[in-house]
Amino acid sequence: MSSDNADHDTAAHDPAPAVTFGPLKRALREHCYPVTAAELIEQYGAAKLETPTGTARLDGLLEGSEETQFRDPSEVREAVLDALGRADASAAAAGEWTELPR
Q1: pTM for the full model?
Q2: pLDDT for residue 76
């Protein structure tokens, strides 16, 4: 398992560059779902993610999808990756988003 401080969300076979969610990953996993994008923006909008091209804020990535409702953290992750202009085919990496570490 990866730590929350160094979680790169790509598998070795995934050609997409890594996105580091940092502490936001744990916050999203612990958040109560379902939740709208607007609610996430209100609570975590200033959170920064490290992307291959620099730093992006969550509010900028979810902007325009305020009405979207997410059922679990992996759906938020997919929305972020989509906003960055790429689809992530790594279902295994997405699965770890719904499981809290013990």
Answers
A1: 0.70
A2: 94
